[in-house]
Amino acid sequence: MMIMAVILFSFNTVVMADAYQSCVKCHGENGELRALGRSKVISKMSKAEILSALKGYLNGSYGGPMSALMKGKIADLSEAQMVEISEKIGK
Ligand code: HEC
After folding, report:
1. Is residue 1 part of a domain?
2. Is 13 helix (H, G, I), strand (E, B) or coil?
3. What residue numbers bound the domain in which 63 lies?
4. How far apart are the C-alpha atoms of 58 and 60, rounded to whole Å?
5. How many domains is the chain partitioned into structurally?
6. pLDDT at residue 18, rounded to an integer
């Protein structure tokens, strides 16, 4: 029962919580970190730049040496969630 509750809770957080939460550990609470010492400081990118970077990671048209990692992180996001993230973090 306890285990069920934990599983349900984590499922809920992934689906319901603000989509940026899974990014915080690398990019910082407000996008202020250079993720793994490699990425740009995404809080300094415009909303449009962030959105196009995210879409670009998905279709392979954007990114540096660690783009495969980023693609994995955002593979489950909906378009609406990508917009939500860029609105929240971008300038
Ligand atoms: C495990 C750490 C990690 C997590 C978690 C992560 N990222 Fe990243 N992110 C990176 C790295 C490393 C790069 C640079 C990748 C490359 O080589 O292009 C990057 C790049 C980016 C960029 C482009 C910045 C640039 O340097 O051009 C954006 C935008 C971004 N991430 C958004 C997100 C969002 C939104 C999430 C959550 C859904 C997320 N990231 C989760 C590590 C992470």
Report:
1. no
2. helix
3. 18-89
4. 6
5. 1
6. 84
